[in-house]
Amino acid sequence: MNTRSVLSLALILLFSFVSKGIAQEGKAPNYAAKPLSEWIDAFKNGTDWQSHMEARRALGPNGPYAKIAVSAIIEAFKDSVHRDGAKSVIADYGPAALPQLLSAMRRKETLIRTRVAETLGKFRPPLVEALPALLAALKDPAPEVRRAAAWSLFSLGRPTILGRVNPKSGEVLAALMGSLRADPNAEVRAAAARSLRILGRRHPEAVRLVGAALEDKDDTVREAASRTLVDMGEFAKPALAALIGALKNRNQNVRADAAFALGIIGPEAKAAVPALIEGIRNKQDRAIGWRYACALEGIGPGAKEAVPALIDALGQGDERSNDYYAQALGAIGPAAKAAVPALMGAVKKGNKEGAVEALGKIGSAAEPAVPLLIEVLTKDKKPSGQARNAAEALGGIGPDAKAALPALAAIAQNLKEDPDLREAAAHAVTRIDPELAAKLDIETACLNVRLRKVPSVRLAPRKLTDAQKKRFRELICQLADATKPVFDTFPPFGGPAFAPHPVKKDAKTFVKSDRQDKAAAAFHSLVEAGPDALPFLLEGLSNRTPTNWTIEISLGAMAGMGGLLVDPRWPRNPLQPLEKRAWAMSKDREYAFDEEKAFDQYSIDSYTIKVGDICLVAIGQIVGRSYENAWYRPIGFLCDIVRSIWAGPDPAQKLLDSLLLDFSTEGRFDGDSLNYWHEGNNLQIESALRLLYYFPKETAPLVAARLHSLDVLAPKDQDTGSMMRIVKNGVLADEFLQAVSWCQGPEIQRELKDIARRTNDPKIKEALKRKPEPKP
Q1: Residue 486: what pLDDT?
Q2: Higher confidence at residue 170 or residue 661?
Q3: Between 19 and 177, residue with greater pLDDT
Q4: What is the pTM of this model?
Q5: Using CA atoms, how far apart are residues 664 and 658, in angstroms rounded to an integer?
Q6: 351 touches 320 (CB < 8 A)
Q7: Which of 242, 123, 245, 129 lies closest to 193, judged by CA?
């Protein structure tokens, strides 16, 4: 799932929390009005979602029957169709429910023992106290109880928050391995194999045992083992021989998973190439041929002997399969030169995505495809088209693609084209002809922004006292008291924010507490101090002290196999030299968890915000960049970038220079519309606010001159005239006025009064009326 989808889920979680808080402020339902038996019946037999949820709340730890509800729900396990909901209700009780659950594990009824074993795996965080009972349940005479225990032991053994492992995980590992090795029931062995996917991945013996299960006599166990090895990722290497052998397993699902796992292992799986070639040529495996192609793609250049088989397969499958075959050829690189005609044929037939990318990866050997790629570049620009891929492919071919330079340069400089396409075209020009790219300044010409003359302002030396340094470090330590999100203090979703700005004073918090107030005040003070606090906040980025703010969310489930990948795009001014350099180094990379590459979709079910995460947000507020905190992703890679940009011997001068550059950045007009123009507008507005806040004496005259130059007369033509006035001003005048009108400097106030005198525009007049309190 992509970053936007992750963010959407985070929003849902946040607002469900808010809604819950609002509901609690109203009149609470009288759950005691019904006896426990009726709530149990409603829970078991409710015909609609609302009545079922009402019953869950009545039976939960905040309901009137908390002391007896757990026992009643355990009894309801016998015939409840809502058994998963019942497990969740009991899990809400936390450790308080454990004595009754452990007692129920000694019951005669197999169904009760099974449901209780399943419930013990529902607790977040897992309850170590339940471990003896679950280990004992692995020896239960009923196979369904043993299977439930194996599944729940996965929860007790896996890492929970950034790799913190249960201290009893060794016992769990040994027990699960024993069940996989010797349990007579296939379902239990399969559950044990799946439960080893995280805990066992760092133990070669466990990995080899899972590999051996690929030859189990039961299909269920073999499929569980193959899926587990896929989830283990690169840690499946000890089972390499078993995976290669599984490519000839009689179960097609096992063969498909084995191929996929080999692709994840990568170049070290080169020995599998002959078997993978055989799989691709096997007509009975045509439906899973793309899995074999994925494996060859992962192996890369070492799979060059598969080129003929991939060429033969290309065009014989459906569109998806053909893309995978093409991608495998691209991963092999120049050694796949013989595939160029076939790839060109695929492009002509409409199978463009994988084939176009592959031609670029083959490099100069794909020179015959240049005219075809030029055609795709210039004629396939619809939103779902392949023009960007074609630009990247032409860049991959390099100097031999010089015939494409006129088309690429024209696209890069055409503001009416999509920005991503422009950027790809500019990058291709640079790779094909660096001298031409420098002459055209192509990397700047493709941007949505341009630079006016940047003022030069030098600051007097600033030196902090030891007391000030101590104070900043104390404030950063106080951030550990953060408990819950506060919109005006810890903006969870990024976006423009500036804690000490007076207009933010009316923002409401979700939670009011002494600890939260202390953390909020510390955050406010750090942002207020700005350049003086910046070196200490940069130092604080590496502070992994946990706060009291834990996000309960299944992060990995939204990330897909192989770790939560982080979008490397981060807020910046593309004309700022340090940010431009950092962007060039990071834009082609994908970042996994900095704490542990091996995490997959089952690894983490909560994340505790660290002090360093909040320091990142504070830095963003100071420098005018919406750096996001770690609600749904760790920030190691972004911290490195932030340090490389903002660290230095004179933080105040560096901040001032950056803000002045932002202040001098404006959008580029494409002649017809303001598409993509607002990037420069936002940079100007955010920088003007901070210039006046942090450096009022030095920059008030510059901002006043900008105010003086604004055209504030109402346009006669509200459509074209309004747009042309915006272009003339280089900024949205009403937003700019709101950003600076709080400043009481005489130069600013004089220009604001002059604007009020000369404007006849209602929007400008309205903006002038919104006067927040002055800076304290």
Answers
A1: 43
A2: 661
A3: 177
A4: 0.79
A5: 10
A6: no
A7: 242
Token code pair at residue 78: 């016998």
Inter-residue contact 490 to 515 (CB < 8 Å): no
Calculate the CA dihedral of residues 166, 167, 169, 170 and round it to 10 degrees: 170
pLDDT single digits (tens) 439-470: 999 999 999 999 999 999 999 988 999 999 99
User: CA 236 from chain center: how many Å?
Assistant: 25
Size of the chain, expressed as the number of residues it contains: 776
Whole-angstrom Cα distance, residue 539 to residue 40? 55
For residues 326 and 315, give the distance between their C-alpha atoms in angstroms, rounded to a whole number.
10
Rounded Cα distance, 291 and 545, in Å: 43
Helix (H) / strand (E) element for 228: namely helix 219-232
Cβ atoms 239, 229 nearer than 8 A? yes
Hey, how many other C-beta atoms are within 10 angstroms of the C-beta on 363? 18
Burial 708-744 (b: 16+ CB within 10 A, else e): eebebeeeeeeeeebbebbbebbbbbbebbbbbbbbe
With CA atoms as reference, report the closest residue to 614 among 701, 488, 490.
490
Specify which residues 662 forms β-bridges with. Answer: none
- Supply the Cα-derived Rg of the chain in whole angstroms: 31
SS3 labels along 69-122: HHHHHHHHCCCCCCHHHHHHHHHHCHHHHHHHHHHHCCCCCHHHHHHHHHHHCC
Q: Is 168 helix (H, G, I), strand (E, B) or coil?
A: coil
Q: Is the pLDDT of residue 660 over 90?
A: yes
Scan for tokens 């149990």, then name that residue.
Answer: 40
Residue with tokens 């790219």: 437
Residue type, 68: I
Q: Letter for the amino acid at 218?
A: D
User: Which amino acid type is present at position 554?
Assistant: S
Cβ 622 vs Cβ 652: under 8 Å: no
